[in-house]
Each structure stands twice: as structure tokens, then as C-alpha cells.
């Protein structure tokens, strides 16, 4: 009886524990389908990043009106993001999907160095663009004299020097493993000093700088928009619109000459003089009302554009933080807390979220700029812009 029971139990156990060939084949098919789907999604993101940045570069190159130092900085940002999409993202697709590095140590070193250099340069470009806007808004007259292509080129050179200095150190300790077989290609977070140096240099310090700069831009914009137009006893004002590189604007209300009103009166008389008296002629009163309405309308236009510019600044800063904060927080946590652990899939999500910023940058910096949108339309119609 006991023997029969044991035989039944043995048969039941074998029936329940032995995997069926059809089930194993089904699991492999599901895994292959997920890999193909993931590869397609990442490939679409990469292609969109290539095309959007290429369009920005072509638009600036073909449109003479966009040949300004500010747009030169935006073009350099587009070149950097294009390098990310061409040299970094395709290899990352293969590594993310396969989960195994099969390209050797040398390619690993080149890929990691390119990844760190180009992504850091992309982030630092946001800082120099913000710095350029800040100077243009807070010191418009003086900075317009110093805002040259040479100065923009110098700022770009500084960006690349800092980016390369952040990417070089890992090459030294990876050379010791050049002849070993490599199954994974990751930045070594055991070097806590380098992790702190790279994360703060590439993200945390630039983030603080961006917050400070955009905060001051916002305050300066609001203070000028709501500044009282009548000052120092002068009756009328003129509005001057200062257009920045990416569609943001600043309306500075400057007082007009004290004799502006006299030019509007017949005979050159002033409102306090004998020509028009306090009440003035009906013709002069009509002109005065029309001028006041014009100034008010200009101020409304400036306020609307400044509101749009402020919204753009918020989108730029918000997109940057959302895209890169998870990756750099995760990198810093892994370096400081040795017992902490992130699922590899989660870290892949953080990495690609950072790459996504290279797709968002050209959209934000051009979609809110009327000049860029017009140039885009002409470029699509194959018309050279002048």
C-alpha cells in the first residue's frame, strides 16, 4: 500500500514539475517579442532625435536671419545632441536589449567616454544658453556690444573642455582590464571620489546654476513688465522689444524724450505753453489718446510675450530636471550606499530618460520661436531663407 502511494506521488510530482516543451517555447517567444518591441521603441526615439537635431542645424545654417551668437549656441547644442543620437544611443539599444556586452573592452571605453562627454556637454550647453540670456536681459545695451560669435565660440570651447575633463579619468583604471573578457560595460562606481566629481560637475552644479539664472531672468522680466511707465515727470513712453534667441522676450519700458509731446502739437507748442493750453486742441487730444492707446497696446503685447517666455523657461528647466535627476540620483546612491540596489531595468529606464532630453531640447528651443518655425516651414518647402 505504501509502495503504491509512493508510486502515485512520484508520478504526480513528475507530472507537475517537469516543464512542457511547448511552455518553454512560449516563454522564449514572449521574451523575443518583448525584445523586438523594446528595440523598435528605442530605435524610434533615436531616429526622432537624429532628425530633430539635424533639422535645427540645417535651419540655422540655411537661414541668414538666424546667424546670431545666441542661435550659434543653440546650433552647437543641436550638434552635441546629434552626436549623442548617432554615437551613443544605437550601441545603448543593443546593450539594453541583450543585457550582455559583446563588443570588447576597447569599444566599451570609447562608448562610455563618448556617453559621458556628449551628455555632459549637452547639459552644460543649457547653462551657457541660460547665461547668455541672463546677460542679454539684465544688461541688454552693454552685452549687445560683447555678444559676438567669438564670445559664443569661447563659451562652447569651455563646455567641451569641462566635458572631456569629466570623461577622461575612468580611462586610466579601465586600461588595467583591457585584455580581460568583458561581459558588462559600466562606469565603475567604486571610485567614490570620481563619482562625486563627475555627478556634481555634470549635473548638480549646472542644475543649481540653471535654477539661479532662470530665477533671476524671471524676476527681471516681471519687474520690467510691471514697471511704472511714467517716470521723472515725462508724460509718454516708448516700448522696445528685446527678442532673445529661443522665443523669449523682454519688454523694457524706456522714457521718451521730454519734447515728444511738443512735436505732436501744431506750431511746436507744449501742453504747458501758450500754443495748446492745458486742454489743448481737439486734434492734439485725439493724437494724444491714440499714442496712449498705442503705448498700452505695446505693453499688453510685451506682457503676453513675456508670459510665454516665462512658460518656456519653466518647460526648459522642468524637462531637464525630470530627464536627468533620476539617473544622477541613482548613480550617486549606488556610489555612497554599497548595500543599496537598483533593478537593472529601472536603471535602464533612468538612462534612456536622460537620452530623451536630447530629443526634447531641439523641440523646446525652436517650437516656441516664431523665427525658427517660419524657417522650418521654408526649409520643408526647400526654400533657402535669407
Automatic annotation (TrEMBL):
<keyword id="KW-0812">Transmembrane</keyword>
<feature type="region of interest" description="Disordered">
    <location>
        <begin position="1"/>
        <end position="21"/>
    </location>
</feature>
<feature type="compositionally biased region" description="Polar residues">
    <location>
        <begin position="1"/>
        <end position="19"/>
    </location>
</feature>
<keyword id="KW-1133">Transmembrane helix</keyword>
<dbReference type="GO" id="GO:0040012">
    <property type="term" value="P:regulation of locomotion"/>
</dbReference>
<feature type="domain" description="G-protein coupled receptors family 1 profile">
    <location>
        <begin position="52"/>
        <end position="365"/>
    </location>
</feature>
<keyword id="KW-1003">Cell membrane</keyword>
<dbReference type="GO" id="GO:0005886">
    <property type="term" value="C:plasma membrane"/>
</dbReference>
<feature type="transmembrane region" description="Helical">
    <location>
        <begin position="29"/>
        <end position="62"/>
    </location>
</feature>
<dbReference type="GO" id="GO:0043410">
    <property type="term" value="P:positive regulation of MAPK cascade"/>
</dbReference>
<keyword id="KW-1015">Disulfide bond</keyword>
<feature type="transmembrane region" description="Helical">
    <location>
        <begin position="74"/>
        <end position="98"/>
    </location>
</feature>
<feature type="transmembrane region" description="Helical">
    <location>
        <begin position="315"/>
        <end position="337"/>
    </location>
</feature>
<dbReference type="InterPro" id="IPR000505">
    <property type="entry name" value="5HT1D_rcpt"/>
</dbReference>
<dbReference type="InterPro" id="IPR017452">
    <property type="entry name" value="GPCR_Rhodpsn_7TM"/>
</dbReference>
<feature type="transmembrane region" description="Helical">
    <location>
        <begin position="152"/>
        <end position="172"/>
    </location>
</feature>
<keyword id="KW-0675">Receptor</keyword>
<keyword id="KW-0807">Transducer</keyword>
<dbReference type="Pfam" id="PF00001">
    <property type="entry name" value="7tm_1"/>
</dbReference>
<dbReference type="GO" id="GO:0071880">
    <property type="term" value="P:adenylate cyclase-activating adrenergic receptor signaling pathway"/>
</dbReference>
<dbReference type="GO" id="GO:0042310">
    <property type="term" value="P:vasoconstriction"/>
</dbReference>
<dbReference type="InterPro" id="IPR000276">
    <property type="entry name" value="GPCR_Rhodpsn"/>
</dbReference>
<keyword id="KW-0472">Membrane</keyword>
<dbReference type="GO" id="GO:0045202">
    <property type="term" value="C:synapse"/>
</dbReference>
<dbReference type="InterPro" id="IPR002231">
    <property type="entry name" value="5HT_rcpt"/>
</dbReference>
<dbReference type="GO" id="GO:0004993">
    <property type="term" value="F:G protein-coupled serotonin receptor activity"/>
</dbReference>
<feature type="transmembrane region" description="Helical">
    <location>
        <begin position="110"/>
        <end position="131"/>
    </location>
</feature>
<keyword id="KW-0325">Glycoprotein</keyword>
<keyword id="KW-0297">G-protein coupled receptor</keyword>
<comment type="similarity">
    <text>Belongs to the G-protein coupled receptor 1 family.</text>
</comment>
<dbReference type="GO" id="GO:0050795">
    <property type="term" value="P:regulation of behavior"/>
</dbReference>
<protein>
    <recommendedName>
        <fullName>5-hydroxytryptamine receptor 1D</fullName>
    </recommendedName>
</protein>
<feature type="transmembrane region" description="Helical">
    <location>
        <begin position="349"/>
        <end position="368"/>
    </location>
</feature>
<dbReference type="GO" id="GO:0006939">
    <property type="term" value="P:smooth muscle contraction"/>
</dbReference>
<feature type="transmembrane region" description="Helical">
    <location>
        <begin position="192"/>
        <end position="214"/>
    </location>
</feature>
<dbReference type="GO" id="GO:0007268">
    <property type="term" value="P:chemical synaptic transmission"/>
</dbReference>
Amino acid at each position: 500500500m505504501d509502495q503504491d502511494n509512493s508510486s502515485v506521488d512520484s508520478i504526480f510530482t513528475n507530472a507537475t514539475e517537469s516543464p512542457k516543451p511547448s511552455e518553454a517555447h512560449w516563454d522564449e517567444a514572449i521574451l523575443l517579442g518583448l525584445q523586438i518591441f523594446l528595440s523598435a521603441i528605442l530605435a524610434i526615439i533615436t531616429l526622432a532625435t537624429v532628425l530633430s537635431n539635424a533639422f535645427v542645424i540645417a535651419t540655422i545654417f540655411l537661414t541668414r536671419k538666424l546667424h546670431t551668437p545666441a542661435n550659434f549656441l543653440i546650433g552647437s547644442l543641436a550638434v552635441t545632441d546629434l552626436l549623442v543620437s548617432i554615437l551613443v544611443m544605437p550601441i545603448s539599444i543593443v546593450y539594453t536589449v541583450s543585457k550582455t556586452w559583446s563588443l570588447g573592452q576597447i569599444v566599451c571605453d570609447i562608448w562610455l567616454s563618448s556617453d559621458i562627454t556628449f551628455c555632459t556637454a549637452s547639459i552644460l550647453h543649457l547653462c551657457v544658453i541660460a547665461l547668455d540670456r541672463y546677460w542679454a536681459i539684465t544688461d541688454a545695451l552693454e552685452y549687445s556690444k560683447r555678444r559676438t560669435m567669438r564670445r559664443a565660440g569661447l563659451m562652447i570651447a569651455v563646455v567641451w573642455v569641462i566635458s572631456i575633463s569629466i570623461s577622461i579619468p575612468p580611462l586610466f583604471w579601465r586600461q588595467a582590464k583591457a585584455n580581460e573578457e568583458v561581459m558588462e560595460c559600466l562606469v565603475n562606481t567604486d571610485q567614490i571620489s570620481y563619482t562625486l566629481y563627475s555627478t556634481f560637475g555634470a549635473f548638480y552644479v549646472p542644475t543649481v546654476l540653471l535654477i539661479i539664472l532662470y530665477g533671476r531672468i524671471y524676476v527681471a522680466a516681471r519687474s520690467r513688465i510691471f514697471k511704472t511707465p511714467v517716470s521723472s515727470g515725462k508724460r509718454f513712453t516708448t516700448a522696445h522689444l528685446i527678442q532673445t534667441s529661443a522665443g523669449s522676450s523682454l519688454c523694457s519700458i524706456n522714457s521718451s524724450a521730454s519734447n515728444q509731446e511738443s512735436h505732436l502739437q501744431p506750431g511746436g507748442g507744449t501742453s504747458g505753453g501758450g500754443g495748446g493750453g492745458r486742454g489743448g486742441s481737439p486734434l492734439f487730444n485725439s493724437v494724444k489718446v491714440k499714442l496712449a492707446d498705442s503705448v498700452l497696446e505695446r505693453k499688453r503685447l510685451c506682457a503676453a510675450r513675456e508670459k510665454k517666455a516665462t512658460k518656456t523657461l519653466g518647460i526648459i528647466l522642468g524637462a531637464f530636471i525630470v530627464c536627468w535627476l533620476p539617473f544622477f540620483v541613482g548613480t550617486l546612491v549606488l556610489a555612497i550606499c554599497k548595500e543599496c540596489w537598483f533593478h537593472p531595468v529601472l536603471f535602464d529606464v533612468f538612462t534612456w530618460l536622460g537620452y530623451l532630453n536630447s530629443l526634447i531640447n531641439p523641440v523646446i528651443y525652436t517650437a516656441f520661436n516664431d523665427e525658427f518655425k517660419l524657417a522650418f516651414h521654408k526649409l520643408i518647402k526647400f526654400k533657402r531663407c535669407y
